[in-house]
Amino acid sequence: MALKKKFLKSKPVCKVTFTLPPEAAQGAKKVFLVGEFNDWKLDATPMRKLKDGSFTRSLDLEAGKDYHFRYLVDGRDWENDWAADRYEFSPFGNCENSVVSI
User: Fold this and answer.
1) pLDDT tops 70 at residue 1
2) Cβ atoms of 62 and 100 closer than 8 Å
3) How open is the CA angle 76-93-48, to the nearest 5 degrees?
4) Which of left, alpha, beta for 64 (phi over 0: left; psi -120 to 50: alpha)?
5) Which domains, ranges and CATH numbers included, belong to the chain?
6) d(Cα 33, Cα 24) in Å, to the nearest integer?
7) What is the DSSP letter of 50?
8) Which residues on adjacent β-strands are paired with residue 68?
9) I want to staple 31 with a disulfide (CB 3.0 to 4.6 A). Which of 19, 45, 47, 102 is the partner?
10) How far is CA 74 from the centre of its chain?
11) pLDDT digits (tens, 9 = 90+) for 56-77
């Protein structure tokens, strides 16, 4: 997994590219990026499937913040990002969220 960050010079925004690799996607048909940036709406941010079986999505996020997120695979399985800046326990379940710091 990879988180690519590109800070924009013109605004206090960072373009973050989220990638779920094929070994984590495990042949998934659909993956959604779910987190604080979309109010944890399960179907608000679909990811694009690439030929190699990975999924990707870029978002412009406000700089100077931390964002909790996870990947929802085929509407039933949750995956964390192995390349997250850190992990924190979720207040809504017995699990950890991935965290990206901008």
Assistant:
1) no
2) no
3) 35
4) left
5) 2-101 (2.60.40.10)
6) 14
7) P
8) 99
9) 47
10) 15
11) 999 999 999 999 999 999 999 9
